[in-house]
Structure formats: structure tokens, C-alpha cells
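Bumping with the actual sequence this time:
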Amino acid sequence: MSSSPDIESIEKEPRVDVDEAKDYVIDAEAEKRLRRKLDWRILPVITITYTFLFLDRGNVGNARSAGLVEDLGLGTFDFNIGTSLFYLMYLIFEIPFALLIRKVGFQLVPISIIGFGVVTISTAFIHNKAGFYITRIFLGIAEAVTYPGLSYLLTRYYRRHELTSRVGCFMLVAAGCAGGFGGLLAAGLLSVNHIGSRRSWENIFLVEGILTAVCGIVMLFIFPADPEQSRMLTPEERQLAIARLYVDQPEIKETKEHINWSLIKRGVFSPTTLACSWLYIVDNLSVQGLGVFLPSILKLNYPESSTVHIQLLAVPVYIVAMVVSLACTLGCIKYRVHWPFTLFGGVLTLIGYSIWISTPATAAKARYAACFLNLTGGFINGPVVVGWAAANASPDTLRAMVGAVVTGIGGIGSIAGIWAYVATDAPSGYHAGNSFNLAMAASLCACCIGLYVFQRFENTKRETGGRDYRLEKEGVDRLGNLHPSFRYIH
């Protein structure tokens, strides 16, 4: 007998009286209990989800070091082209998918997990360049649903100053676990001669794809719904959850506004969104470039090491980056600032790439230490920049879209990161790629300081009444972050 819900049960899904939620008086203790419940119910689910996304995105680097390029007969730049196609699809589809999720609901996320699990399994059966290109294209399309869905889910449950640490939790724990566990898993799978008809790097895609698809099926039943319909909350908790959405958005009449072109333009072209998009582009240069090429870079440092040993060398790099970055995101919520931590990440990256371009190829230990600095700097800025953008976006439509805009446009950095490390530059220790990353890290520091100055200036202007003229126009309830009483969390 089918267990699918019938029409009557769907119509009886719990909903909140939104008008009552506007006037709801938030009790500090009740809010604390709700926040603790959300942390235990939501964060583990989205962290596991993003872990599999990061695992399936980055396993191509492990496969490359295990002979994928040679077995598929890829030319000098074919690997870079195929990897770029993934990020290009991600860039094209992320914003439309973000708006689609807002309209149809969060169940698209588990479906996307199943989708990119199936694509990953398919990658274990490719035999040539065309197969490599096709699977990377479909993987990018499938994964373009997941991140905007996860980030938007958080904005529906958490307040502005709570966002960055939660984004940091799921991004960093997932990236650290995927990078560390992925290296260990790859090492183990490469030690196995055959799994059925598959061998070597094919084992990586086969096993990790199966694990991902199973995860997606489980998520169909446990993935959180919107707070207005959530069954994991009591009626009182749902009302409190919706009331929290009104607190940080001055004079709004509803938490989900209709999508229109004016609102979209405002979200995309705001100074905060544009600056954070650039910061994320630069950040992706390090994170995605290193994520794909770290095993290959380590192979240059330790040419006598086995493939399995190289995979194991990558593990502590991810673990250290995760721990330090988590501490920084907790600092964001404690002090309610973003720019010092973004600047700190940029400085670490500057130092790391400076070591790379100033040391000889024989300085293996110094260059290995530089990998820690580069990845840690990149890990810090991923969640901090996304949190910085989302915390300063209002109303709801903007907040849903801004995360997708920042990470979608940030895909340009991922593509650039892939082309920063080309095979022809390997004999020099990727000197050109590291020099490029060094220059971009310097631009990140400058952009970070510029955004801080702008937001501080805006806050001062609003405190002195310099933006009160906006209250004289119609549509005050749609001003959101442009409202005179709205203060940027810089």
C-alpha cells in the first residue's frame, strides 16, 4: 500500500497565521530553545548533504592523480576544459534554480542529490574525452540546485547575525570532511584492485556515487520544509520562527514577496552583492584550484611518493583548514563583524602564494606548509563572504537570490582556478598559476577594506537621517536593506 500523502493530508499541512506572527513578542528564552533545536535538526542534515556535494565535486582531482587523464586519452588541456564545463553549468543554472526552489519548495534539494549521485556513478563507466565532458556538464547542472537550496533554507530559519556561523558550519565541516575523508576513501579504494568490472580511479566514482544516491533517497524523507509548513516544529515554535523573520526586515508585510525584475536588479547590482561576488571569485581561485589540483601539486613536491601516500598527505591540509575556519566563523557571530576575518583569510593566502613563488622546487616542506595557508585562507572566506552577503540582503526574495548570485558568479573564479594550473606550467612548479593567485589575493584584501568602508559610511548616513527621504515614497515595506533603520553588519 502506498505511503504517499493524499490531497487531503497535503491541504492540512501546518501553516502559521502570518498576521499574528508580525505582532508576536519574542521571548529570549523561547528563542534560545528554538535556536538550539534548529541547530540539532537542520545543521546535521545540510552538512551531510553538502559533504556529498563537495565529495563528488572534488573526487576528479583524486582520480586525476590515479591515472584518469592517461586512461581516457585526454590531451594537454582536456582535463581543464572538462572541469571548467562543470563550473560553467553551475554558473548558468544556479540563479534560476534558486528562484525555482523559492517557488516550489526545498524537496528539489534531495532530488538533486540523487541526480548528481547517479552522474557520479556514470563517470565510473566513461571511456573517452566525450564521456568526461558529458558527465561534468550534467554534474554541474545537478549540483547547481543544492547550494542555493541549502543557503536559502538557512535564511528562512536564522536571523541575520546568526547566519555566518551556520553557513560556516555546513560549508567547512562538509568541505573538511569531504577533503579529508575523500582522500582516505580514495586511498582505500585505490588499494583495491577491482570492484566488479571497475578498477583504479573508476572505484572512486562508483563507490562515492552510490553513497551519494543513497543519501539523496534518505533525504527525501527527512529534509526540512519551510518554517511555515514545517512538521518538526510545534505550532508555537512555527509562529516564533516566522516572527524571527520579521525582526530583521523593517516594515515588511510578508516574508515572501513576489519576484519582479526591479527586485532582481536591486539584488544583483547592490554594492554589497557585487563586492561579495568579487571576494567569492577570488576565494574560489584557491579553494577550487587547490581542491582539484592539490594531489597533483603534492606529487610535484614528493615525486617519489606513491599515489596512496599523496592522497594521505592531502588529509591534514583539509583538517587544519576546517578547524581554523570554523573558529573564524564563530568569531563572526560573537563580534558581529565579517571584514576582519575576510581580511585575515586574504593575508594567509598572500603569505602562502608568496612562499610558493619564492622557494625552489626542492623546498618541499615549505611548499607543503604553503598549501595549509592557501587552503585555510580560502576556507575562511567561503562561508564568511556568503554570510556577509546574506546577512545584509532584505527582503526575502533578495536574500534567496543573493546567495545564488554570489556563489554563481563566484564560479568564474572556479573556472579561472582550473586554468591557473595547466599541464604546461607543471615543470616550473605552477609558477604562473601561483603568481596569478598572489595578485588576486591582494585584490581580495583591497575589496574587503573597500566594502567595510562603504557599509560603515552607509550606517553613519542612516544614523544621521541622511536616508530618511526614502520613507516619503511608496513601497516602504519593500525597502528591506535600503530602509533607513536597516544597519549593515560589516
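The C-alpha cells above came from a reply further down the thread. Strands lie at 194-195, 198-199.
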